[in-house]
Amino acid sequence: MAVVVFAENNAGSFKKASFEIVSYAAAIAKTMGTSVTAVVLGSMEDAVAAELGTYGASKVVKVSDVSLDTFESHAHAKALAEVAKAEGAKVVVLANTYSGKAIAPRLSVKLSAALASGAVALPEINGSFTVLRSVFSNKGFANIQLDTDVKIVSLTPNSYKVVADGSAAAVENRSLGIASGDFKSTSVEVKKVTGKIPLTEAELVVSAGRGLKGPENWHLVEDLATTLGAATACSKPVSDMHWRTHDEHVGQTGITIKPNLYIAIGISGAIQHLAGVSGSKVIVAINTDKEAPFFKIADYGIVGDAFEVLPKLNEALSKFKAAN
Amino acid sequence: MKILVCISNVPDTTTKITFSSDNKEFNKAGVQYIINPYDELALTKALELNEAAGGGTVTAIHVGQADAEPNLRKALAVGADDAVRIDAAPIDGFFVASEIAHYAKDKGFDLILCGRESIDYNGGMVAGMLGELLDWPSVNVITSISINGGEAHLERDIDGGREVLTAKLPFVGSCQKELTEPRIPNMRGIMMARSKPLQVLPVAANTAHTQVATYAAPAPKAGCKFLEPTQVEELVHLLHTEAKVI
Ligand SMILES: Cc1cc2nc3c(=O)[nH]c(=O)nc-3n(C[C@H](O)[C@H](O)[C@H](O)COP(=O)(O)OP(=O)(O)OC[C@H]3O[C@@H](n4cnc5c(N)ncnc54)[C@H](O)[C@@H]3O)c2cc1C
Ligand SMILES: Nc1ncnc2c1ncn2[C@@H]1O[C@H](COP(=O)(O)O)[C@@H](O)[C@H]1O
């Protein structure tokens, strides 16, 4: 019996979401009176893999088959299922990233295990196993009861605090014999966005809407994002009009995000927009219209013209950054 | 090509979501249902792929109850050739995927398209589960697709970027914004849809892995603290000391 956690890695190093899910898995294991085995697929130095012990993994199983350096949902789900079975996993935890979303459903079928995707809190385990996840694009939550012997939970990034109070874990290298036939699709090229903080992983987000009037004014938004170390986002009409690229569109029909801070500039706060961002911990709205719906869910609001407020806010933030 | 498109029936995006007083049910009264926006993309793309290939059929499938039939008719009006409804009250993504896999397994489909996720339960699981149940490849969040001689050339969103990939038919794809613009039915389509076949089939596998124990509304917000446009330094100070996010 164990809690098995899939610690995604990006070219040999972990992202924060992996530390979050190992910490989360450690809390689950504690309740269940068992331990955490982390699984790493693809090339990585043992010393880096051992780091997962810091976040609560007792053991790291590393399948360093180089073919697994390229993500493919079928092959990765197969490898993960094999390790989960060998470890006697009762609970498998993944991050609800694009990769996690691609593997988890396949794994669920392979292990005949119920899947709760997009969990936002620790499960409650007492006879039954229920976990809270957001539904209706953040307009509500549902406690999902998982009725199978083995359970899979994929955790929404930025939903659980990283806990780093352990020490290096033992790393066990394992060979699984993943064959080329296990790869059902072929990666041709990976185009990583460089020099930008990926929106799905960002803790701070600066976002703007039609109130910015045109793409030529976005330097105001970008300056603020640069000063803060934030990612940039936008409302749907902004990406529909090609002022910004589609990957910045947040909302019910765009990306759902859950940053610590969301600054909404010149966005009215239509219900479809709010659905994608209302999970943010703190919201700042800047809008000329004091009746703008965004103010109903904002924590801080400035009724004012973005063209006046943004340069001043950027200056104030720069000063703050220099002093802290 | 013979393409199957999975259609989910979801509350209109403007719906205010409320739950019953015991938090056991979602209040459906007065809610307008639409085709899941991502499934509209899947449907439109299926039609475009067949137009590019010079022919083929598109079947729309829904696992659900009779009240979804107007939206299946809409799918027919947009251009699907026929529609299938598996008569059941779906319980979870596995339930839906099992029914669709059971229907599709011996019908010789070249491609199954789903949406990236349904905007009601946001599981994002049907496509991957279908892939595994049928032992087909599955490719998520597709933003571009073209098919040539039994092989698809695809682009999809990945964490922090894009991936270009290829997959052999048949496979299951889940559709993301940017793939295409949804088609709106025209008068002729609406007329034709009336006589297109809509088959109702009984539930086959009838299995679920999960159930909703309770719902919960988001915690109410404390209210907005308003600042003057000149108080930007105060805002920065509050974000640091009070909100503790910077
Ligand atoms: C099916 C469907 C799905 C949708 N999905 C999404 C989605 O996922 N995401 C999304 O964002 N939208 C979505 N929408 C669209 C949504 O309904 C709104 O139309 C959209 O969010 C409005 O964008 P906006 O706030 O940028 O523009 P507007 O509504 O035009 O608002 C602009 C705001 O800027 C303010 N403003 C103007 N000038 C200034 C200034 N100088 N300084 C400061 N403020 C200023 C105005 O007061 C106004 O509040 C969807 C709609 C539908 C029908
Ligand atoms: N009841 C259903 N009937 C048919 N297809 C569905 C149903 N529910 C979900 N789907 C398909 O699966 C996709 C992902 O849904 P989900 O896994 O529920 O987020 C949707 O976009 C649809 O294409």
CATH topology of the largest domain in chain A: Rossmann fold
Side-by-side strand order of the widest sheet of chain B: 9-8-7-10-6-1-4-5-11
Q: Describe the oligomeric state of these chains in a short phrase.
A: heterodimer
Sheet with the most strands, sense and barrel status of chain A:
7 strands, parallel
Percent of residues in beta strands of chain B: 25-35%
Query: Roughly what is the average pLDDT of chain B, rounded to an integer?
Result: 96
Counting structural domains of chain A, the number is: 2
* DSSP helix fraction of chain B: 25-40%
Number of helices of chain B: 6
Helix content bin of chain A = 25-40%
Which chains have the largest interface? A-B, 96 and 83 residues
Write the CATH architecture name of the largest domain in chain A.
3-Layer(aba) Sandwich
* Coarse morphology of chain B: globular
Order of helices and strands of chain B: EEEHEHEHEHEEEEHEEEH
The N- and C-terminal alpha carbons of chain B lie at a distance of 53 Å
Listed once per kind, the bound small molecules are: flavin-adenine dinucleotide, adenosine monophosphate
User: How do the strands line up in the largest sheet of chain A?
Assistant: 7-11-6-1-4-5-12
Runs of chain B with pLDDT <50, length 5+?
none
Give the amount of beta strand of chain A, in percent. Answer: 25-35%
> Please, what is the CATH homologous superfamily of the largest domain in chain A?
HUPs
